[in-house]
Write a structure and sequence with these properties.
Peroxisomal Thiolase, Chain A, domain 1, transferase, acyltransferase activity, transferring groups other than amino-acyl groups, 4 strands, two-stranded antiparallel ribbon, Thiolase-like, alpha+beta, single chain
Length: 214
């Protein structure tokens, strides 16, 4: 058993990478991934000195989700929905103070730098190029997108920077609209949203009819 905590919004993707490594190195194993977030703990009364805390309280929500990750599926009894082909992690220099969460006696205190969307926008393309170009992928609009919805402005910046078609981030936008930013659980909610939407629309794959995604 592995417990991951205080990893913030990156945990949703990080835990899938860890589950992939465990499954691939233990033949026949199935890894149960559970993400649970209680963001009500960051709620505090409004303060003129900490406007960013008010933004966080309006943005975040509670959520929990689970998914099973495995390797070498038995297709007689199992029906894999997605395949994790590769995983990549990048740390952006000089951003360690952009998002801070501190545990205090009166709950969690959140600090969000107003430049977070800009930081993501300036780095997202280079990060993605390192991750997917070795696989021969070049066209961002040829893939489906499961993007953690850190906020509407972040999604807007990613969409603009990569020149994505408007419908590419619809699963992420719907989850953000319906549930808020649920930290690690968001990625699993978006996977489920895309799976359901693809099924209802009669697509050939669970990724909106496409074979590759990010």
């Amino acid at each position: 058993r592995f417990i991951m905590y205080q990893q913030g919004c990156s945990a949703g993707g990080m835990v899938l990478r860890l589950a992939k490594d465990i499954a691939e190195n233990n033949k026949g194993s199935r890894v149960l991934v559970v993400c649970s977030e209680i963001m009500a703990s960051i709620f505090h009364g409004p303060s003129e000195n900490h406007v960013d805390s008010l933004v966080g309280q309006a943005l975040f929500g509670d959520g929990a989700a689970a998914i099973i990750v495995g390797s070498d599926p038995d297709l007689t009894i199992e029906r894999p929905l997605f395949e994790i082909v590769s995983a990549n992690q990048t740390i952006i220099p000089d951003t360690e103070m952009a998002i801070n969460l501190h545990l205090r006696e009166d709950g969690l205190k959140l600090h969000l730098d107003k430049d977070v969307p800009r930081m993501i926008s300036e780095n997202i393309e280079n990060i993605l190029m390192k991750a997917v170009h070795p696989l021969g992928l070049r066209d961002w609009n040829s893939m489906f997108w499961i993007v953690h919805p850190g906020g509407r402005r972040i999604l807007d910046e990613v969409e603009l920077k990569l020149n994505l078609n408007k419908q590419k981030l619809r699963a992420s936008r719907r989850v953000l609209s319906e549930y808020g930013n649920m930290i690690s659980a968001c990625v699993l909610f978006i996977i489920d949203e895309m799976r359901n939407k693809s099924l209802k629309e009669g697509e050939s794959t669970t990724g909106e009819g496409l074979d590759w995604g990010v």
